[in-house]
Transcription antitermination protein NusB (Roseateles saccharophilus), 163 residues
Amino acid sequence: MNAPQKTASKTAAKPGAKRAPAKSARRRSREAAVQGLYQWLLTGEDIGAINALGREQEGYAKLDVKHYDALLSGCVNEAADLDAILSRHVDRKTTELSPIEHAILMIGAYELKHCVDIPYRVAINEAVELAKSFGGTDGHKYVNGVLDRAAVDLRPVEVAAKR
């Protein structure tokens, strides 16, 4: 007698169902940088220790390490400048923002300021996606509005060309 054949499980993907696209190395870098910045904002811990801990996390090999390093160290080293940029577009002191939204806004402002190879709309969208994943219920709307206004200051020619 033959062994019974296995049947497809009810949780298997249905034919034609769309799968979420795999995360890019850059997206993973942003996610790891948000986590490191969040820790830094909450604890004030040495960024070297935070970075070392981040490098031990599962999935580190899948990051765009160069972008992760630029985001994490760049945001910490330029925190005062990034906060000055953001303070023109937020409705309260940056120190009163949720630490996760603050970290996401810092990354978005850093990318708008320094990563000109990334179109401004992509930088904003990536920050919005981070806010959807890590932030509060409507935090992504706040992040979108703040970075949209900051883009006018940081990338005026690019923004004007798109509008």
Notes: Residues 25-43 form the longest helix (19 residues).
